[in-house]
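lol forgot to send this yesterday, sorry. struct tokens for the thing we talked abt
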């Protein structure tokens, strides 16, 4: 049995650096303002969804944009402020750069699974920001959670590795597991927001602002060492086995996933006796129009640097996803794995192949 402390019910949230807190504050100021302005006109849901679908292209610019806007407003009341700040830009730009590099070198949050829960809003500004870039997405399609049976249960006192397919341009299935109150949490209470943490590529914790956004949610570094640490702490994981490769090889409307050579999550499950839960995001690959141009170059970048370059567009050639088909997150029946003699021990390769075959068949 897993204790309440291990479930995350009495564990304090992991500590964030001042750098991360400052970026999150700027994000919240910007997005809460947009949410509050657009909501009365019914535009918050589509705009919030479009933004998140392209967040890696735009989010990094939000903090400097907010600072620039604040500086412009200040200059109206205190003429000359803008020019004074610009005159010393070399100093404050180098200071921010050094601060960022120092944060990367010392911040342990991406490698700290215990306490890596969703940081729930504590005021109107934070709540509006979360509505803009999280809850609006669930309402847009809307995203549904469909269990394998009417009486399906996922007891929260067991450990799971939830594997989500396919990635698509944007993996909408991730929203099911990142916070309490989602359709998945309502159907299977006691997991999301308490003992489920997500694995994302290490490179995303290097990009400024993007890293801070993910640290606000239950995400940790996808390295095996950190994943093992999470399972050793009694937590459960959710991840995308196909990773960024699925973004590159994606064909619109085609239900396909990269799985035949992906066995790392199977080894993790067998090492800790965690149940394997297959998840399929029906409609994920129908969300955007995908273009195959520059495939060779994009494949090279993905293989060499672990970064996916997507060539796509949504409705009206914008990042707004198509919603011709509903997005249904299909939750498969858990595959129980044998308990290892020693937690964390390396499983027998034949056993890995056996359970990989079972998983593929179930998927």
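and heres what i got for the seq, position by position
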């Amino acid at each position: 049995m897993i204790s309440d402390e291990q479930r995350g019910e009495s564990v304090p949230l992991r500590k964030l650096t001042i750098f991360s807190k400052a970026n999150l504050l700027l994000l919240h100021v910007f997005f809460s303002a947009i949410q509050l302005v657009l909501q009365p006109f019914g535009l918050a849901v589509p705009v919030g969804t479009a933004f998140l679908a392209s967040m890696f292209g735009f989010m990094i610019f939000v903090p400097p944009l907010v600072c620039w806007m604040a500086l412009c407003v200040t200059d109206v009341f205190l003429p000359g402020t803008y020019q004074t700040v610009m005159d010393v830009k070399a100093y404050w730009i180098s200071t921010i750069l050094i601060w960022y590099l120092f944060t990367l070198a010392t911040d342990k949050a991406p490698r700290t699974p215990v306490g890596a829960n969703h940081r729930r809003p504590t005021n109107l500004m934070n709540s509006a920001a979360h509505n803009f870039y999280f809850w609006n997405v669930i309402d847009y399609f809307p995203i549904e959670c469909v269990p394998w049976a009417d009486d399906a249960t996922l007891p929260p006192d067991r450990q799971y590795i939830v594997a989500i397919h396919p990635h698509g341009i944007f993996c909408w299935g991730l929203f099911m597991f990142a916070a309490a109150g989602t359709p998945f949490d309502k159907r299977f209470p006691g997991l999301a927001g308490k003992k489920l943490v997500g694995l994302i590529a290490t490179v995303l914790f290097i990009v400024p602002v993007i890293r801070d956004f993910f640290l606000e949610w239950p995400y940790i570094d996808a390295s095996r060492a950190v994943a093992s640490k999470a399972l050793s702490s009694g937590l459960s994981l959710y991840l995308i086995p196909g990773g960024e490769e699925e973004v590159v090889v994606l064909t619109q409307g085609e239900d396909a996933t990269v799985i035949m050579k992906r066995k790392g999550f199977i080894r993790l499950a067998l090492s800790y006796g965690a149940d394997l839960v297959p998840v399929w995001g029906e409609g994920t690959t129908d969300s955007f129009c995908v273009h195959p141009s520059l495939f060779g170059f994009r494949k090279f970048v993905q293989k060499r640097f672990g970064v996916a370059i997507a060539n796509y567009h949504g409705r009206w050639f914008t990042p707004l996803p198509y919603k011709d088909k509903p997005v249904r997150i299909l939750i498969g029946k858990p595959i129980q794995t044998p308990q290892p003699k020693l937690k964390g021990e390396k499983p027998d390769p034949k056993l890995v192949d056996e359970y990989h075959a079972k998983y593929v068949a179930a998927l």
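DSSP finds 15 helices and nine strands in the chain. anyway ping me if u want another try
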